[in-house]
Amino acid sequence: MRRYVLAFSLVGVTFAALAQDAAALLMAEVSFNGGAFVPICTVPSGGMCVGSVSSGGLQLNMAAAQSNSPGTPTLAVLLSSAVSLMNTNASGTATAHVLIGDTGFLAPTGGVTMDSHIGGSVAVGDPLNTMSFFSSIDAGNGQNVSPGTFNTAAVTPNISAAGSYDATNSVVIPLVSTPYSMTENLTITLSAGSVMNYSSSTTVSPGTRLSPVPEPVSLLLVGTSLIGLGVSLRRKRAANAHRRMN
Predict the structure, then answer these.
(1) Cβ(75)–Cβ(205) below 8 Å
(2) Considering just the CA atoms, what is the radius of gyration of the chain in Å?
(3) Taking the alpha carbons of 124, 125, 130, 134 in that order, is the dihedral positive or negative?
(4) What are the domain boundaries of the chain?
């Protein structure tokens, strides 16, 4: 889980430098067991949305949600991560329906692919645990509208047993009008005592791909690893040169 926290810290530094539409809004909300949606957190686009909420035996601790609204010509991004979702009921299953969305995206718009990715780990599993996840774009720029005008097909990673999980899907979009909103849509059912976490990303970028590309979290981790490798190699060469001179 430490790598997800690190990645969100790096994303926060990157996005803080981007110009944002002051009217755009990032909101995370949840419905427990079919009840009304209640806010987890709400911030202007570009801010870090963090919060915790519990009801009906479920407790959700959101580590972060963020986007780069209004986007760039090459990338629109929506990210979210939960440190934990646990069912504290003594018996019976409970369901959390989570929506994370931002408005005011102005780019990219035409000939794009929306990639939807989720991964994480299950600390305490159960055969009755289930998850469904998909991403949406609403051409009407509605807050947390999902399903929307365009949607990825839902993925249903296996969260029945302890361990890690990972799933990705995508959809090609010929053209989307602006401004538009992006929303992540998760439905998670946990049995009594189950505990899990997740990290998700939704990206919109130009072009049609035959296979999914790494989400920004993975790209940042790979970039950081390569930087570290480069520093290590330079230090090794310098040490070897120093020994030859002596």
Answers:
(1) yes
(2) 20
(3) positive
(4) 2-240
The continuous run of DSSP H or E covering 239 comes out as helix 216-245
Q: What is the pLDDT of residues 38-55, one digit of tens each?
A: 999 999 998 899 999 999
pLDDT tens-digit readout, 122-161 = 999 999 999 999 999 999 999 999 999 999 999 999 999 9
Q: Is the pLDDT of residue 192 over 70?
A: yes
Q: How many residues does the chain have?
A: 246
Distance separating alpha carbons of residues 87 and 58, to the nearest angstrom: 5
Any bridge partners for residue 200, and if so which? 80, 118
pLDDT over 70 (residue 215): no
Distances (CA, A) of 242 to 49, 137, 186, 204, 216: 49, 57, 56, 48, 39
Closest residue by Cα to residue 99 from 69, 71, 60 = 60
DSSP label at residue 246: -
Q: Please identify which residue in the block is written with the tokens 């755009």.
A: 24
State the Cα–Cα distance between residues 78 and 86, nearest whole angstrom. 24
